[in-house]
Amino acid sequence: MPQALQQVNTPLIGVPGGRHLLDTPALLIDLPAMTRNIERMAAFARSRGVNLRPHVKTHKSVEIARRQVAAGAIGVSCVTLGEAEVMVQGGIPGVLITSPAVTPSKIARLIRLAQQARPGDVMVVVDNPQNLADLARAASELTHPLDVLVDYGAGYNRTGAATQAKVLELAALAAAEPRLRLRGLQAYAGNLQHIVAREERSAAAAGLRETVAGIVAAARRQGLNFDIVTGAGTGTHDLDSQENAFTELQAGSYVFMDAEYSRVLADGDQPSPFETSLFVQTAVVSTNAADWVTVDGGTKCFSTDSGVPLVAKGADAASRYAFFGDEHGKLMPPTGSQGSQAQRPALGSRVEFVTPHCDPTVNLHDAYHVVEGGTLVAIWPVDARGRR
Amino acid sequence: MPQALQQVNTPLIGVPGGRHLLDTPALLIDLPAMTRNIERMAAFARSRGVNLRPHVKTHKSVEIARRQVAAGAIGVSCVTLGEAEVMVQGGIPGVLITSPAVTPSKIARLIRLAQQARPGDVMVVVDNPQNLADLARAASELTHPLDVLVDYGAGYNRTGAATQAKVLELAALAAAEPRLRLRGLQAYAGNLQHIVAREERSAAAAGLRETVAGIVAAARRQGLNFDIVTGAGTGTHDLDSQENAFTELQAGSYVFMDAEYSRVLADGDQPSPFETSLFVQTAVVSTNAADWVTVDGGTKCFSTDSGVPLVAKGADAASRYAFFGDEHGKLMPPTGSQGSQAQRPALGSRVEFVTPHCDPTVNLHDAYHVVEGGTLVAIWPVDARGRR
């Protein structure tokens, strides 16, 4: 097979100025910024007395998961079984699968994975009595019980039981089933993460904390212990960690940040506590149009679900990007400056962008190009890219 | 490394009803429908006396390219050098790279590729005198001249020289350069492909044909022969093949079709001449919400640049899909039927969708699950996925 892009760029590792010689488009990590983000969130969780089990759907990388665990995370959260398989294979402990495993194929894979891992290192959420019975039947093949958390819809209702009564019913079923071990509760409110107005987000999160505390108290009265209460994303990590409603946070995007979350986490004059550490480097491949230059990153390089990439380096920061097909972007200098050649990046020059939404953008790339200043210091695979 | 999805599903090949047992989400090809599309476009091109060099950015598959060539295509078009590398490695002849190779890294890869392939089997477009000089310098390493086509912006101006004068200037430079061989002209009007109103699309395409014919005539008067005049997408294939303006078509999406192109190619009561042959199969993973069920395909499974997936099988066709995060979709029964349990797909059941936009959706998947009726007959890799 032809060389993958990471192999094309491997000879540039350690070469002075290698960042500016990359085969493009290339997904970049600013290593010092990412390291600060990892340390900041770990310190934040410690200061609040909650555990951190960061979501790897953002980065899908064993190397980054290792760094998160080394900084204090108790494990990782995964949305797909394929992500969990990659993490267990990579030696990452404490893997929580945050979406139900429902079809026979997925349940068979889950059981194989749970058997490979140490007891307790693979946990899965459940939101349906039929699914719970299917898991229990399959778990009879295991030499240890299967760890489950009951999933609560939390008003978002992507997955999860819809009411406290349904949560308690599932928890009682799990507790009564010897082939399962009830570990806790998941309450993830995806709909709150991206509310930009802090007061509105804060009020909604307070309501969720109250509901979750009520569910946990009711469970305790029935002798159902939710040792783990997990939830929270990057958008609500500071809210969900108040009042001991949650025992752990599953925020993920903080490691990279993106255009969207930077808006959400900025608080008045205070910028986000996390820095943008993820970028995409493109090259200018055509300069014939009067009002734009064309760069080699399009809909197969940047996710299209949340706005457009923002210029970080290599062009006037006020230039606007527009999608221009699978492999191209239109980069327009600021209005009023079209006549100025100084504003137009030259053919072959590099333009780096902040990603519009980090998770689905990462999923379009096979490798991270890890940089410190102008130096490429490593290339890491996006190990779980495309794993379902 | 953990098993990739194609390996998970490989044991299902040939198993009766295997289509309904797949690990999900799974990208599906309806093989008879795709085969008819390939044959129809080949027959259409023959009937118009034009060549067909279909664009592989749609499918990124050596197997599908082989079938297109077997049906009469003279080669394939590629937007990235990585796609071209995969096709040459797979033995596909007549590879045209439809975007300029500009950076030193890309030019070095192009030269290596041209040397590997038979003379004439790798061609690249050029839209800039500086890039032309760079290519000529690099081509001195080749044992044969490098084949180039001059790229004309065609009013779209993603890449391409902006005017007839600039096209002729580039053509003269290429013709005068012994290390290059001038092969023709590219005029791709991406902006015309998706105009739904047929009369408007037709008028715009007629204007382009006139311009292209004018450029070619002017070139001939200067002794510059454009043997190849390439352009056209699925949206304008029947227009661009009129009046001998183009010698070949580079349409790609016709092989699969999608929600968007089906709207464009329908002509009054006449449906599109091409059938939808690409689908994504999801499974229902949560059924607790009152107004929807949740399926396991989200923004990492369907492209988000052009509307939403449409139900093809497994649920009421009038159900609406909404994106629901990286790995999930919200599937809502038709308004007014929320109370009817019969309308709600059961937990674990399969729902298949027409993709909103085929090219970037394919790019999210590692493998095609090739089906005939209820049988999985093959699994093909998306060979060039992620190749830049």
UniProtKB/TrEMBL annotation, chains A, B:
Asked if the keyword Metal-binding belongs to this entry, the reply reads: no
The alphabetized UniProt keywords are: Lyase
Give all residue intervals belonging to the D-serine dehydratase-like domain: 277-372
Task: Name the InterPro entries on file.
Answer: Ala_racemase_N (IPR001608), D-amino_acid_metab_enzyme (IPR051466), D-ser_dehydrat-like_dom (IPR026956), D-ser_dehydrat-like_sf (IPR042208), PLP-binding_barrel (IPR029066)
MF terms per GO, please?
D-serine ammonia-lyase activity
Residue ranges crossing the lipid bilayer per the database entry: none
Keyword Lyase among record annotations: yes
Record protein name field: D-serine deaminase-like pyridoxal phosphate-dependent protein
Specify the species.
Variovorax guangxiensis
Q: What is the lineage of its organism?
A: Bacteria, Pseudomonadati, Pseudomonadota, Betaproteobacteria, Burkholderiales
